[in-house]
Amino acid sequence: MDSELRINADLACHILRLFIRDEVLKVGAVGVVVAVSGGIDSALAFWLAVEALGPQAVVGVALPYRQSSKDSLVDARALARALETELIEIDITPQIDAYFEANPTEDQNRRGNKMARERMSVVYDISQERSMLVLGTSNKSELLLGYGTLHGDMAHALNPLGDLYKTQVYQLARHLRLPEALVSKRPSADLFAGQLDEDDLGFTYAQADRVLYHLVDLREPREKLEHLGLAPSVVDAVLDRVRRNQFKRRPPLIAKLSSRTVEIDFRYPRDWGH
Amino acid sequence: MAEVRPLQLSLVQAQPRLGDLRSNLDQVAHVVAEEDRAGQDLVIFPELNLCGYFLKDLVPETAVRLDGPELRELARAAGRATVVVGCVLESSEHLFFNAAVVLRSQGIAHVHRKLYLPTYGMFDEQRYLAAGSSVESVELDFGRAGRWRVGALICEDLWHPSAPYLLSRQGVDLLVCPSASPGRGVAEPNGELGTAALWGSLIRTYSALFTTFLAYCNRVGFEDGHYFWGGSRIHSPTGEPLGQAMDDSAGVGRRELDREWLRRARIAYPLLRDERPELLRQGLGEDHGGL
Fewer CB within 10 Å, N side or C side of chain A? Predict the structure, then answer.
């Protein structure tokens, strides 16, 4: 991990635990529900939530599709066992296959997005049933790169990981001693067999995080990023994704007609009254 | 002359409910009554404690007036204590100020309106609030704890040295700083929070530089993902902390302020005596406006 991206892990974990506890308890929710994919991000969010709220107030949900890696479910189960937390398992194959039987496509992106939104739909139903908030697992790298499904994994009430780059997620996971199988696994959206994030993106998270840190946190202009020693094509590919996916980070646009419009000049904090 | 006893000061690290004036008033009145019963002289609350910090369009909805029922209610709860409470204050011209109001059972003793409204990064105060334009202090009689000249500055005010400097020229014994500081900066692998480290050095430096007691009262809790880190503390006129800084949980920190410390500090470090404000006047003359 690049040394300039290293953070104070104890302090960061402390703040994130307080954040989860404060935001959950003050709105009167019972706890949180987390979609546990078997990957590092959801594992860390799940882990922090249990540390913040206790195992009784956290529910994990594993939502495999028939082509999902079997290891993902094994790792999700191991994690829930380690945390002594409930894990609900719901196979989304029937509804996904029923939909694509009626609307066939070979487009892996469409299929993947549909699955991500199906999972979100199930998790929100459980959150209502249990009076729990949906805890998000999108990290800062994914948010900036737009590597996520709108109204899928990007839909949630609270996100403890949204200001942590992927490499920092690994740092915290190692710091908290998450199971080695999770920490050493290569990141995958697991939308189809053998898929790897870094193949999809065309660069590694380590590369992207350095570019993003200098661009976003240090506010360096594009022409100054040459000193990172990365191929210009990688820098450009990262910047292009950041710009192209801005829409995923914002609420939908509303056509302004009146003198007071939601999201434009009707401005209230989300924590209004809490 | 009867011997002067130390001033008993309470720092209240509260977590107000955002936009819920009623519940915050109840909470403040409850704590004030408790501190009064404990014999505390001065009870300090954080910035905007009656309404919460990231208010946006809630500013006019949670504002109070100097002659309104809310501050009267708190004055009634004060008993023998003096209270510094943060709120949005609506003027008769319907301007909204971020204010620190000094209350006693007899009524309002002093008001400071925040001078510097941060409007950058995560802050948006100038969009919603009017800026104060004067730096004043007040002499408060604490009975057997003596008379103290007290000045208040709110959070960002302290980051502009002219504000504490002007209070220092008025001879303040105690500078109080109600704050709602959102924490950021976890980059130092083994250090403290970036914001806390900066505030810590500022408080220590200013208390020593102006040879005055400095009471910093920050809030705790979260608003829309922003972490208020607490860390309330008092430093002596020679810069030393009076006890440990508070952590980031809600609670009250009680401290004793011995007036003798002011005398010792100003003998040992006569910075107040030696200050030369005429240099400032010369340097800032109309031809040397700089920026």
Answer: N
